[in-house]
Amino acid sequence: EEFGDLVAALPRRQQSILELRLYQGFWLPEHWVPGTVVFQRRFSPRPDDVVLASYPKCGTTWLKALAFAAAARGAYPPAAPGHPLRRLNPHDCVPFIDEIFAGGEEAKLDALPSPRLMNTHLPYTLLPDRVTNAGGCRVVYVCRDPKDMVVSLWHFLRRAKPDLSFVETFESVCDGTVAAGPVWDHVLSYWRPSVARPDRVLFLKYEDLLRDTAANVRRLAEFMGRPFTAAEEAAGDVAAVVELCSFDEMKGLDVNKAGSGTAGRYRAMPRDAFFRKGVAGDWANHMTPEMAARLDGIIREKLQGTGLDFAQGS
Length: 314
Ligand code: A3P
Fold this sequence. Notes:
This protein is of the alpha/beta class and 314 residues long. The protein has 16 helices and nine strands.
């Protein structure tokens, strides 16, 4: 309630199932705003915290699983049959940080064992200064070819609004009025600090994760301050993390099957909605060549001169 006036004063747009508000340069679903403000005001990171950040539908669920499996491997060996990721959806293992603040559930954060993992869809510029300043914590970002993001987003939103057209979703991404959009500003908000301070911001691409998951698991573990030891390598622990978090493995779990309930912040979204196809290039089955060229052109123009592109892997 105390945020009613603040929210009402923000520019508003309707996009499919979401009411969006323009907050500090980004279109946030209206219900994210209070949690974002409280997160900005109150969050105080521990030095070994890791914030997992992403644009929606770019690999959040996978990143949560990989980071959790790598960070918690002391307590939960990745090959163990009773591993939490065989019983729980990744969104139920790693909390959405702004949702925690929206719900006044900070005690849950305090109770997490170090290194704490939490995630957000907010752009880097909206993270609290206490995260991004010199004494802050580490941030891992995952992005994805925006064309595949649009396809994934459309399938996801259609779970809540079956008659949503692909073209409508595509157009909202192209003009930036989409949850956490514009996507190019979101990606650049993390790209720039990842170049300036690679020890603080790790920038990953979904396509690179698909190409060589093991190499990226090693990068992730090292970045989090927990590199795999020679003994762990010899025991096959990296491969065990990759296998535990693989698309087929996770999609096949009972907990992630249709009818198994809802996950994390997406209280209204079924857990199986986070596991659709898990490939790169599905855009070709949904977009005309003209649409693909148009979105590529927008992204190319926005990223020009930044050193980042989606045309090839990093
Ligand atoms: P598709 O819809 O293209 O299949 P997010 O987790 O950010 O919501 O992103 C969801 C996308 O990641 C979906 O893409 C989903 O299938 C894919 N995904 C989920 N878990 C994955 C995994 N373990 N490996 C690879 N891709 C995964």
